[in-house]
Design goal:
The complex is a heterodimer of chains A (203) and B (225). By secondary structure, chain A is mostly helical. Chain A is built from nine helices and no strands. Chain B has 225 residues and is an alpha/beta fold. Among the domains of chain B are: 52-155, abc type-2 transporter like fold (3-Layer(aba) Sandwich), CATH 3.40.1710.10; 158-196. Chain B has a four-stranded mixed beta sheet, with helices on both faces. The N and C termini of chain B lie far apart (80 Å). The chains are: A mainly alpha (203), B alpha/beta (225).
Chain lengths: 203, 225
Amino acid sequence: MNEVIAFILPGMMYFWVLFIGQGPMQEVIFDREGNILPRILASPVTLPQFILAKMLRCFIICGLAMVLLVVFSRMVYGVTWGNPLLLAVAIIACALSMTGLLAAIYSLARTREQARTLSSTILLGMAMVGGGMFPFENLPGFLQAVGQFTPNRWGNLALRGVAGGKPFADLIAPFASLIVLGLLGCGIAFVLFRRQLSTGRGK
Amino acid sequence: MNTVLSLVRNDLKRDWKRPWSMLLLAAMPMAIATLIAAVFGGSGKSAAMPTVHVVLMDEDKDMLSDFLRSMPAQGDSANKLQLQFVTNREDGIELLEQNKASAFVILPTNMTLNLLNGQTNAIELYENPAQQILPKVVRQGISLLAVGLSGVAELLSGPLKSIRELRHIDDFPTDESTVRVALDSVRNLRHVRTYLFPPLIQFTNVAANDYQLTVTNSPAPAKTP
């Protein structure tokens, strides 16, 4: 049974932890719509600091949730997760990519409803084509081609690779992809959030 | 940076005080993975394959049907397939209706003779509608059997006819007839040798002096005095 869990869990983990990480990003929109943001900005907190704090919190929460799931699956089901150092790198890379993805999604949304719809659609779609819900190898060719560009796919590869005892050289591609996707998403989101929040767009 | 960290610290303190929604979401992947593993993964032990009960009515009572009747008693199939023989159709159908068998198979009259003469035969199959999988297994098995019998009858009709005739004589078969059957069989099988016996490993003779030249990846043989 633990082999099946070890096979399913990485994909499921990536998908569900994204929902956990939504909280801080949702707060950015709530604070803006609820007029809390002007009050925060009236204190010695700048807009970039506010955005960075939300992203950092999202990163920490995603990382902690993954650590919790890894520890739980190890203790209860005896799932082996391979080299702890590589696992730590995988978790950090996954958490970074999750932060980038969520920040990018929420920076595109103008209202709470829009954010909710957009995030659910994108996260579900990515999980489906990225191998989070179905085995990636069983997907039709064109969906596999699309799935290659999702962080879910790379997260899955990284976590399964570490659990399967792959050497670091084989894991460079997934780790690098996750980190690049994460940094890119965070960068884009930072610019968009800044522009949006400073001009009060979406109010 | 200090401001960012203090903002994060404050938010995390807030999360720590109300962790339930996050814990619930964190439990979801574990719960779903456990559920899927329980449904598809079982307890780690593979489930034993059920025994297929088949009712058989042999109207042929000839060489090939005798051979088919003896097959389930050999090897692994002895545990996986259980045949029950009936002499009339009603008994077979009744056993199906009582859900005591997955399928009822009727081997037709003159099946062996017709097969050896190149004529079409029809094996009748009644599936138990109360069962889902096992009747389909029997159907697949019968289809495979029909194809196999056709192939064998086409390829070895001559030798099989001879064997059939030998079965009906009371005396012990003569050496000449036995050898003729063997030779005919081998000759016929030679045509399909490539398909029946594809070479997995090929042996070639190599002179001792050429051994090092031809084999590059294998270790050199130990030198003998």
